[in-house]
Structure formats: structure tokens, C-alpha cells
Write a structure and sequence with these properties.
Strand order of the largest sheet: 3-5-4
Order of helices and strands: EHHEHHEHHEEH
Strand content: 5-15%
Distance between the termini: 29 Å
Helix content: 40-55%
Radius of gyration: 16 Å
Number of domains: 2
CATH architecture of the largest domain: Orthogonal Bundle
CATH superfamily of the largest domain: EF-hand
CATH topology of the largest domain: Recoverin, domain 1
Number of strands: 5
Length: 145
């Protein structure tokens, strides 16, 4: 699971239950109101509408990623958050993400968006890697203005 949410995944299932997800969001600086058990929590419910629309009670890595990327358009707190989310998608935490990894982990629209906005990844010798995208540069470009 994406750092810093990995340690909230107590049973190491690769997904978070709603309580773990809420703790994770708080750790990321989301200002969620404290509500008593069983009390309505409209703010958290609206986040769940995005990350767990089927309300299966769990948030998967894919759902979390989709949420972080959709938040990107709503002014995410830091480029590090999104960068670490992309790093979790790329195998072995590479500095680039492949087309396949994007389509495996995001919705088609999100993957298309990333591919159309990300520059091809160049290795240390200035060679372009086939179907590899530079998520670091992409993430930083989101936070320029």
C-alpha cells in the first residue's frame, strides 16, 4: 500500500477497511471531523462515494490511487503524495511508470489522461524508454502554478 498508508493495513491484505482508510487520510492531513461510532459522517461518506462506490467495506490500492489522482485536479496537498502513489504503481519503485501499469491500476480515463500528459521517460544517457512515462516530472508540473 502507498506510503504513508501502508502501516494502516493492519492485516496486510493490500486494502484498507473504512476505519483504516480514515486514519490514513488523517495522517495525510485531511481534516475529517471526529464523529461517534454510528453517527452520520457526510464528509467521509462523500470520499467513500469516490473510493468505495460499491461499498464493499474496503479501499483497494487501485481505489486509493484513483482517489489520489482525482484529488490532484482538486489541489492535493503535495506533489510527494502523488509521486509516492505513482511509485507504488511502478514495479520496484522505478522513477517511471509503464503504460501497462497505468492501465492495470487506473480507470481507462485516468490512464489516458496520464499518458497524454506525461513525458516519455529518459534514462541517464538521454535515451527514451519504450512505453515508459516520467511520473516525477508530471507530478511536479502539476504543482508549478
Amino acid at each position: 500500500f502507498v506510503f504513508p498508508c501502508r502501516h494502516f493495513d493492519k492485516d496486510k491484505s493490500g486494502r484498507l477497511n473504512h476505519q483504516e482508510f480514515k486514519s490514513c487520510l488523517r495522517s495525510l492531513g485531511y481534516d475529517l471531523p471526529m464523529v461517534e461510532e454510528g453517527e452520520p459522517d457526510p464528509e467521509f461518506e462523500s470520499i467513500l462515494d469516490t473510493v468505495d462506490p460499491n461499498r464493499d467495506g474496503h479501499v483497494s490500492l487501485q481505489e486509493y490511487m484513483a482517489f489520489m489522482i482525482s484529488r490532484e485536479t482538486e489541489n492535493v496537498k503535495s506533489s510527494e503524495e502523488i509521486e509516492s502513489a505513482f511509485r507504488a504503481l511502478s514495479s520496484e519503485g522505478k522513477p517511471y511508470v509503464t503504460k501497462e501499469e497505468l492501465y492495470q491500476n487506473l480507470t481507462r480515463e485516468q490512464a489516458d489522461y496520464c499518458i497524454s500528459h506525461m513525458k516519455p521517460y529518459m534514462d541517464g544517457k538521454g535515451r527514451e524508454l519504450p512505453s515508459a512515462y516520467d511520473y516525477v516530472e508530471f507530478t511536479r508540473s502539476l504543482f508549478v502554478n
